[in-house]
Protein backbone atom coordinates (compact mmCIF):
# COMPACT_ATOMS: atom_id res chain seq x y z
CA UNK A 1 0.00 0.00 0.00
CA UNK A 2 1.41 3.37 -0.99
CA UNK A 3 1.66 6.26 1.43
CA UNK A 4 -1.29 8.65 1.25
CA UNK A 5 -0.78 12.35 0.70
CA UNK A 6 -2.77 14.74 2.89
CA UNK A 7 -3.36 17.93 0.92
CA UNK A 8 -5.70 20.56 2.29
CA UNK A 9 -8.81 20.20 0.15
CA UNK A 10 -11.61 21.54 2.33
CA UNK A 11 -10.72 24.90 3.90
CA UNK A 12 -11.91 28.15 2.36
CA UNK A 13 -8.30 28.98 1.41
CA UNK A 14 -7.96 25.55 -0.21
CA UNK A 15 -11.15 26.05 -2.19
CA UNK A 16 -9.62 29.17 -3.73
CA UNK A 17 -6.38 27.40 -4.67
CA UNK A 18 -7.87 24.00 -5.59
CA UNK A 19 -6.63 24.08 -9.19
CA UNK A 20 -3.04 24.58 -7.99
CA UNK A 21 -3.42 21.68 -5.56
CA UNK A 22 -4.77 19.40 -8.28
CA UNK A 23 -2.03 20.46 -10.69
CA UNK A 24 0.61 19.51 -8.12
CA UNK A 25 -1.02 16.09 -7.66
CA UNK A 26 -1.34 15.60 -11.42
CA UNK A 27 2.26 16.60 -12.08
CA UNK A 28 3.49 14.14 -9.46
CA UNK A 29 1.13 11.34 -10.50
CA UNK A 30 -2.24 11.61 -12.25
CA UNK A 31 -3.48 8.80 -9.98
CA UNK A 32 -2.68 9.78 -6.39
CA UNK A 33 -3.58 8.17 -3.08
CA UNK A 34 -4.98 10.88 -0.81
CA UNK A 35 -6.24 10.87 2.76
CA UNK A 36 -9.52 12.76 3.01
CA UNK A 37 -10.37 14.96 6.02
CA UNK A 38 -12.56 12.09 7.25
CA UNK A 39 -9.42 9.97 7.54
CA UNK A 40 -10.44 7.77 4.62
CA UNK A 41 -7.89 6.88 1.92
CA UNK A 42 -9.08 7.29 -1.67
CA UNK A 43 -7.48 7.38 -5.11
CA UNK A 44 -7.88 10.74 -6.87
CA UNK A 45 -7.60 10.60 -10.66
CA UNK A 46 -6.49 14.00 -11.94
CA UNK A 47 -5.24 13.27 -15.49
CA UNK A 48 -7.62 13.63 -18.44
CA UNK A 49 -6.86 10.31 -20.16
CA UNK A 50 -6.79 8.40 -16.89
CA UNK A 51 -10.05 10.02 -15.75
CA UNK A 52 -11.81 9.26 -19.05
CA UNK A 53 -10.72 5.62 -18.89
CA UNK A 54 -11.90 5.31 -15.29
CA UNK A 55 -15.29 6.98 -15.84
CA UNK A 56 -16.22 4.75 -18.77
CA UNK A 57 -15.14 1.39 -17.30
CA UNK A 58 -18.10 -0.25 -15.54
CA UNK A 59 -16.53 -3.69 -15.46
CA UNK A 60 -13.59 -2.81 -13.23
CA UNK A 61 -15.15 0.06 -11.25
CA UNK A 62 -18.59 -0.09 -9.61
CA UNK A 63 -20.71 2.55 -7.94
CA UNK A 64 -21.49 0.08 -5.15
CA UNK A 65 -18.58 -1.67 -3.44
CA UNK A 66 -18.29 -5.38 -4.13
CA UNK A 67 -16.03 -5.61 -1.10
CA UNK A 68 -15.39 -2.91 1.48
CA UNK A 69 -11.83 -1.68 1.98
CA UNK A 70 -10.18 -2.69 5.23
CA UNK A 71 -11.32 -0.50 8.10
CA UNK A 72 -14.25 0.98 6.17
CA UNK A 73 -17.89 0.37 6.91
CA UNK A 74 -20.91 1.44 4.89
CA UNK A 75 -22.60 4.33 6.72
CA UNK A 76 -26.07 3.77 8.14
CA UNK A 77 -28.39 6.25 6.45
CA UNK A 78 -31.79 7.46 7.65
CA UNK A 79 -34.74 5.79 5.93
CA UNK A 80 -35.88 9.03 4.26
CA UNK A 81 -32.44 9.57 2.71
CA UNK A 82 -32.38 5.98 1.47
CA UNK A 83 -35.81 6.42 -0.10
CA UNK A 84 -34.68 9.56 -1.91
CA UNK A 85 -31.15 8.64 -2.97
CA UNK A 86 -30.44 4.98 -2.23
CA UNK A 87 -30.52 2.86 -5.35
CA UNK A 88 -31.20 5.88 -7.53
CA UNK A 89 -29.90 6.03 -11.08
CA UNK A 90 -26.80 7.85 -9.87
CA UNK A 91 -25.82 5.03 -7.53
CA UNK A 92 -26.36 1.89 -9.62
CA UNK A 93 -24.40 0.39 -12.51
CA UNK A 94 -25.47 -0.96 -15.90
CA UNK A 95 -27.63 -2.84 -16.71
CA UNK A 96 -29.99 -1.48 -14.00
CA UNK A 97 -28.70 2.05 -14.62
CA UNK A 98 -29.33 1.61 -18.36
CA UNK A 99 -32.94 0.55 -17.72
CA UNK A 100 -33.68 3.54 -15.48
CA UNK A 101 -31.96 6.05 -17.76
CA UNK A 102 -33.82 4.72 -20.82
CA UNK A 103 -37.12 5.28 -19.03
CA UNK A 104 -36.38 8.85 -17.89
CA UNK A 105 -35.00 9.80 -21.31
CA UNK A 106 -38.32 8.90 -22.88
CA UNK A 107 -39.60 12.07 -21.21
CA UNK A 108 -36.46 14.18 -20.65
CA UNK A 109 -35.28 14.35 -24.25
CA UNK A 110 -33.01 17.01 -25.81
CA UNK A 111 -36.04 18.15 -27.80
CA UNK A 112 -38.02 18.56 -24.57
CA UNK A 113 -35.21 20.60 -23.03
CA UNK A 114 -34.91 22.84 -26.08
CA UNK A 115 -38.64 23.55 -25.90
CA UNK A 116 -37.99 24.94 -22.44
CA UNK A 117 -35.68 27.68 -23.79
CA UNK A 118 -38.41 30.35 -24.31
CA UNK A 119 -39.65 29.75 -20.76
CA UNK A 120 -36.09 29.97 -19.41
CA UNK A 121 -35.65 33.26 -21.28
CA UNK A 122 -38.91 34.61 -19.85
CA UNK A 123 -37.94 33.69 -16.28
CA UNK A 124 -34.48 35.20 -16.79
CA UNK A 125 -35.94 38.43 -18.15
CA UNK A 126 -38.35 38.69 -15.22
CA UNK A 127 -35.50 38.29 -12.75
CA UNK A 128 -33.41 40.93 -14.52
CA UNK A 129 -36.44 43.25 -14.72
CA UNK A 130 -36.78 43.04 -10.96
CA UNK A 131 -33.10 43.80 -10.44
CA UNK A 132 -33.16 46.76 -12.83
CA UNK A 133 -36.21 48.19 -11.05
CA UNK A 134 -34.41 48.35 -7.71
CA UNK A 135 -33.10 51.65 -6.42
CA UNK A 136 -30.04 49.85 -5.09
CA UNK A 137 -27.53 49.23 -7.88
CA UNK A 138 -25.84 46.30 -6.16
CA UNK A 139 -27.10 42.78 -5.63
CA UNK A 140 -25.92 39.31 -4.74
CA UNK A 141 -25.62 37.48 -8.03
CA UNK A 142 -26.01 34.10 -6.30
CA UNK A 143 -28.99 34.80 -4.04
CA UNK A 144 -30.84 37.16 -6.37
CA UNK A 145 -30.20 35.48 -9.73
CA UNK A 146 -28.24 32.22 -9.84
CA UNK A 147 -30.45 30.50 -7.24
CA UNK A 148 -33.96 31.64 -8.30
CA UNK A 149 -33.41 30.99 -12.02
CA UNK A 150 -32.88 27.21 -11.87
CA UNK A 151 -35.25 26.92 -8.89
CA UNK A 152 -38.09 28.47 -10.89
CA UNK A 153 -37.24 26.51 -14.03
CA UNK A 154 -37.09 23.23 -12.09
CA UNK A 155 -40.31 23.98 -10.20
CA UNK A 156 -42.17 24.74 -13.43
CA UNK A 157 -40.67 21.70 -15.12
CA UNK A 158 -41.72 19.34 -12.32
CA UNK A 159 -45.12 20.92 -11.85
CA UNK A 160 -44.47 22.19 -8.29
CA UNK A 161 -47.34 24.58 -7.37
CA UNK A 162 -46.19 28.15 -6.84
CA UNK A 163 -47.55 28.13 -3.28
CA UNK A 164 -45.01 25.40 -2.43
CA UNK A 165 -41.94 27.06 -3.95
CA UNK A 166 -40.41 28.33 -0.67
CA UNK A 167 -40.62 24.88 0.92
CA UNK A 168 -39.28 23.32 -2.27
CA UNK A 169 -36.26 25.61 -2.09
CA UNK A 170 -35.58 24.60 1.52
CA UNK A 171 -35.89 20.92 0.66
CA UNK A 172 -33.54 21.28 -2.30
CA UNK A 173 -30.95 23.05 -0.12
CA UNK A 174 -31.19 20.28 2.45
CA UNK A 175 -30.59 17.63 -0.21
CA UNK A 176 -27.53 19.52 -1.43
CA UNK A 177 -26.26 19.79 2.16
CA UNK A 178 -26.04 15.98 2.31
CA UNK A 179 -22.82 16.15 0.26
CA UNK A 180 -20.68 13.43 1.88
CA UNK A 181 -17.46 15.36 1.17
CA UNK A 182 -18.68 18.43 3.03
CA UNK A 183 -18.22 19.29 6.67
CA UNK A 184 -20.76 22.10 6.45
CA UNK A 185 -23.47 22.42 9.06
CA UNK A 186 -27.12 22.26 8.12
CA UNK A 187 -28.47 25.41 6.42
CA UNK A 188 -30.14 28.11 8.48
CA UNK A 189 -28.68 26.69 11.69
CA UNK A 190 -30.98 23.67 11.67
CA UNK A 191 -30.20 20.71 13.91
CA UNK A 192 -29.67 17.24 12.38
CA UNK A 193 -33.04 16.19 13.79
CA UNK A 194 -34.74 19.17 12.12
CA UNK A 195 -33.01 18.37 8.81
CA UNK A 196 -34.25 14.77 8.90
CA UNK A 197 -37.77 15.92 9.80
CA UNK A 198 -37.83 18.21 6.76
CA UNK A 199 -36.44 15.50 4.47
CA UNK A 200 -39.12 13.11 5.73
CA UNK A 201 -41.70 15.78 4.95
CA UNK A 202 -40.20 16.15 1.45
CA UNK A 203 -40.61 12.40 0.90
CA UNK A 204 -44.27 12.60 1.94
CA UNK A 205 -44.78 15.63 -0.30
CA UNK A 206 -43.28 13.90 -3.34
CA UNK A 207 -45.24 10.71 -2.66
CA UNK A 208 -48.49 12.70 -2.73
CA UNK A 209 -47.42 14.75 -5.75
CA UNK A 210 -46.54 11.61 -7.74
CA UNK A 211 -49.91 10.08 -6.97
CA UNK A 212 -51.67 13.26 -8.16
CA UNK A 213 -49.66 13.28 -11.38
CA UNK A 214 -50.45 9.61 -12.03
CA UNK A 215 -54.16 10.27 -11.47
CA UNK A 216 -54.28 13.52 -13.45
CA UNK A 217 -51.24 13.79 -15.77
CA UNK A 218 -50.23 17.24 -17.01
CA UNK A 219 -47.53 18.52 -19.34
CA UNK A 220 -44.89 18.54 -16.61
CA UNK A 221 -41.87 16.25 -16.39
CA UNK A 222 -43.16 14.14 -13.48
CA UNK A 223 -46.26 13.29 -15.52
CA UNK A 224 -44.08 12.55 -18.53
CA UNK A 225 -41.82 10.24 -16.55
CA UNK A 226 -44.80 8.50 -14.96
CA UNK A 227 -46.21 7.74 -18.41
CA UNK A 228 -42.86 6.90 -20.06
CA UNK A 229 -42.55 3.31 -21.25
CA UNK A 230 -39.64 1.34 -22.66
CA UNK A 231 -39.83 -2.34 -23.57
CA UNK A 232 -43.15 -2.59 -21.77
CA UNK A 233 -41.75 -1.20 -18.50
CA UNK A 234 -42.63 1.93 -16.57
CA UNK A 235 -41.07 3.57 -13.54
CA UNK A 236 -42.34 2.44 -10.16
CA UNK A 237 -43.44 5.10 -7.66
CA UNK A 238 -40.20 4.54 -5.71
CA UNK A 239 -38.05 4.95 -8.84
CA UNK A 240 -39.95 8.09 -9.79
CA UNK A 241 -39.39 9.51 -6.30
CA UNK A 242 -35.64 8.90 -6.55
CA UNK A 243 -35.52 10.36 -10.07
CA UNK A 244 -37.14 13.60 -8.91
CA UNK A 245 -34.64 13.83 -6.03
CA UNK A 246 -31.76 13.20 -8.45
CA UNK A 247 -33.01 15.92 -10.80
CA UNK A 248 -33.31 18.35 -7.88
CA UNK A 249 -29.76 17.63 -6.67
CA UNK A 250 -28.26 17.68 -10.17
CA UNK A 251 -30.41 20.39 -11.74
CA UNK A 252 -30.36 23.08 -9.07
CA UNK A 253 -26.88 23.03 -7.58
CA UNK A 254 -25.20 22.42 -10.91
CA UNK A 255 -26.86 25.33 -12.71
CA UNK A 256 -26.62 27.69 -9.74
CA UNK A 257 -22.87 27.20 -9.52
CA UNK A 258 -22.41 27.24 -13.29
CA UNK A 259 -23.90 30.73 -13.45
CA UNK A 260 -21.81 32.05 -10.56
CA UNK A 261 -18.63 30.43 -11.88
CA UNK A 262 -19.15 31.86 -15.37
CA UNK A 263 -19.58 35.40 -14.09
CA UNK A 264 -16.55 35.06 -11.81
CA UNK A 265 -14.45 33.65 -14.68
CA UNK A 266 -15.42 36.55 -16.95
CA UNK A 267 -14.72 39.14 -14.23
CA UNK A 268 -11.26 37.65 -13.83
CA UNK A 269 -10.74 37.65 -17.60
CA UNK A 270 -12.08 41.03 -18.76
CA UNK A 271 -10.76 40.55 -22.29
CA UNK A 272 -13.04 37.51 -22.66
CA UNK A 273 -15.95 39.43 -21.15
CA UNK A 274 -15.46 42.20 -23.73
CA UNK A 275 -15.25 39.61 -26.52
CA UNK A 276 -18.51 37.98 -25.46
CA UNK A 277 -20.22 41.36 -25.21
CA UNK A 278 -19.07 42.19 -28.74
CA UNK A 279 -19.92 38.74 -30.13
CA UNK A 280 -22.89 37.25 -28.24
CA UNK A 281 -23.11 34.57 -30.94
CA UNK A 282 -20.08 32.98 -29.24
CA UNK A 283 -22.24 32.11 -26.21
CA UNK A 284 -22.68 28.34 -26.83
CA UNK A 285 -18.94 27.80 -27.23
CA UNK A 286 -18.19 30.23 -24.40
CA UNK A 287 -20.37 28.23 -22.01
CA UNK A 288 -18.53 25.04 -23.00
CA UNK A 289 -15.17 26.70 -22.37
CA UNK A 290 -16.30 28.02 -18.99
CA UNK A 291 -17.58 24.54 -18.11
CA UNK A 292 -14.07 23.27 -18.84
CA UNK A 293 -12.31 26.14 -17.14
CA UNK A 294 -14.50 26.47 -14.05
CA UNK A 295 -17.17 23.77 -14.06
CA UNK A 296 -19.71 23.34 -11.24
CA UNK A 297 -19.13 19.60 -10.67
CA UNK A 298 -15.71 19.12 -9.10
CA UNK A 299 -15.54 15.36 -8.66
CA UNK A 300 -17.29 12.25 -9.95
CA UNK A 301 -19.41 9.91 -7.89
CA UNK A 302 -17.07 7.59 -5.95
CA UNK A 303 -16.50 4.19 -7.54
CA UNK A 304 -14.97 1.01 -6.14
CA UNK A 305 -12.52 -1.38 -7.76
CA UNK A 306 -14.30 -4.66 -8.44
CA UNK A 307 -10.97 -6.47 -8.77
CA UNK A 308 -7.25 -5.88 -8.35
CA UNK A 309 -6.51 -3.60 -11.29
CA UNK A 310 -4.67 -0.44 -12.33
CA UNK A 311 -5.23 3.04 -13.72
CA UNK A 312 -2.44 4.62 -15.72
CA UNK A 313 -0.06 1.94 -14.50
CA UNK A 314 -0.86 2.59 -10.82
CA UNK A 315 -2.07 -0.56 -9.01
CA UNK A 316 -5.51 -0.33 -7.36
CA UNK A 317 -6.61 -3.06 -4.94
CA UNK A 318 -10.05 -4.62 -5.00
CA UNK A 319 -12.52 -2.64 -2.91
CA UNK A 320 -10.56 0.62 -2.88
CA UNK A 321 -12.43 3.83 -3.56
CA UNK A 322 -11.57 5.87 -6.66
CA UNK A 323 -12.77 9.40 -7.50
CA UNK A 324 -12.33 11.21 -10.80
CA UNK A 325 -11.44 14.88 -10.29
CA UNK A 326 -13.25 16.45 -13.24
CA UNK A 327 -11.95 19.93 -12.42
CA UNK A 328 -8.37 18.69 -12.60
CA UNK A 329 -8.78 16.57 -15.74
CA UNK A 330 -10.23 19.55 -17.59
CA UNK A 331 -7.04 21.52 -16.92
CA UNK A 332 -4.65 18.78 -17.99
CA UNK A 333 -1.96 20.38 -20.21
CA UNK A 334 -1.58 17.04 -21.97
CA UNK A 335 -5.09 17.54 -23.33
CA UNK A 336 -5.51 21.32 -23.58
CA UNK A 337 -2.92 23.87 -24.70
CA UNK A 338 -2.62 26.59 -22.03
CA UNK A 339 -5.29 24.93 -19.87
CA UNK A 340 -5.30 27.69 -17.24
CA UNK A 341 -6.18 30.32 -19.84
CA UNK A 342 -9.86 31.09 -20.48
CA UNK A 343 -10.42 31.16 -24.25
CA UNK A 344 -14.10 31.35 -25.24
CA UNK A 345 -13.12 30.72 -28.87
CA UNK A 346 -11.44 27.40 -27.98
CA UNK A 347 -12.77 24.72 -30.34
CA UNK A 348 -11.19 21.39 -29.36
CA UNK A 349 -13.08 21.23 -26.09
CA UNK A 350 -14.50 17.82 -25.26
CA UNK A 351 -14.44 18.45 -21.53
CA UNK A 352 -15.48 16.25 -18.62
CA UNK A 353 -17.45 18.90 -16.73
CA UNK A 354 -20.60 16.75 -16.74
CA UNK A 355 -18.72 13.47 -16.47
CA UNK A 356 -18.47 10.82 -19.15
CA UNK A 357 -20.07 7.46 -19.80
CA UNK A 358 -23.32 6.07 -18.45
CA UNK A 359 -23.35 8.34 -15.41
CA UNK A 360 -22.87 11.56 -17.36
CA UNK A 361 -25.04 14.26 -15.74
CA UNK A 362 -28.65 13.79 -16.82
CA UNK A 363 -29.36 17.51 -16.51
CA UNK A 364 -26.47 18.62 -18.73
CA UNK A 365 -28.68 19.77 -21.67
CA UNK A 366 -30.85 21.86 -19.33
CA UNK A 367 -27.82 23.36 -17.57
CA UNK A 368 -26.41 24.36 -20.97
CA UNK A 369 -29.64 26.09 -21.99
CA UNK A 370 -29.91 27.93 -18.68
CA UNK A 371 -26.24 28.88 -18.77
CA UNK A 372 -26.46 30.27 -22.32
CA UNK A 373 -29.61 32.25 -21.61
CA UNK A 374 -28.35 33.55 -18.26
CA UNK A 375 -24.97 34.82 -19.42
CA UNK A 376 -26.17 36.40 -22.67
CA UNK A 377 -29.08 38.14 -20.92
CA UNK A 378 -26.95 39.51 -18.09
CA UNK A 379 -24.32 40.84 -20.50
CA UNK A 380 -26.89 42.37 -22.87
CA UNK A 381 -29.14 43.99 -20.26
CA UNK A 382 -26.47 44.91 -17.72
CA UNK A 383 -23.55 46.05 -19.91
CA UNK A 384 -21.81 47.66 -16.91
CA UNK A 385 -22.08 44.61 -14.65
CA UNK A 386 -18.95 44.45 -12.48
CA UNK A 387 -17.81 43.08 -9.11
CA UNK A 388 -18.63 45.21 -6.07
CA UNK A 389 -16.02 43.50 -3.91
CA UNK A 390 -12.55 42.05 -4.21
CA UNK A 391 -12.76 38.81 -6.12
CA UNK A 392 -10.30 37.35 -3.62
CA UNK A 393 -13.02 37.64 -0.94
CA UNK A 394 -15.64 35.47 -2.62
CA UNK A 395 -16.86 32.69 -0.30
CA UNK A 396 -16.82 29.12 -1.63
CA UNK A 397 -19.30 26.35 -1.03
CA UNK A 398 -17.91 23.75 1.40
CA UNK A 399 -17.31 20.25 0.09
CA UNK A 400 -15.82 18.79 -3.06
CA UNK A 401 -18.81 17.47 -5.01
CA UNK A 402 -20.00 20.85 -6.29
CA UNK A 403 -17.66 23.79 -6.89
CA UNK A 404 -19.16 27.25 -6.69
CA UNK A 405 -19.68 30.49 -4.83
CA UNK A 406 -22.12 31.03 -1.99
CA UNK A 407 -22.24 34.80 -2.68
CA UNK A 408 -20.96 37.31 -5.23
CA UNK A 409 -21.84 40.97 -4.75
CA UNK A 410 -22.04 42.83 -8.07
CA UNK A 411 -23.04 46.28 -9.24
CA UNK A 412 -24.28 47.76 -12.48
From TrEMBL:
Pathway, per record: Antibiotic biosynthesis; mycinamicin biosynthesis
Recorded GO MF terms: heme binding; iron ion binding; monooxygenase activity; oxidoreductase activity, acting on paired donors, with incorporation or reduction of molecular oxygen
Keywords from the UniProt entry: Antibiotic biosynthesis, Heme, Iron, Metal-binding, Monooxygenase, NADP, Oxidoreductase
InterPro entries per UniProt: Cyt_P450 (IPR001128), Cyt_P450_B (IPR002397), Cyt_P450_CS (IPR017972), Cyt_P450_sf (IPR036396)
Domain of life (superkingdom): Bacteria
Pfam family, one: p450
Coiled coil segments of this chain: none
GO biological process: antibiotic biosynthetic process
Keyword Metal-binding: yes
UniProt cross-references to PANTHER family, sorted A to Z: CYTOCHROME P450 YJIB-RELATED, P450, PUTATIVE (EUROFUNG)-RELATED
Family that this chain belongs to: Belongs to the cytochrome P450 family.
Protein name, as recorded: Cytochrome P450
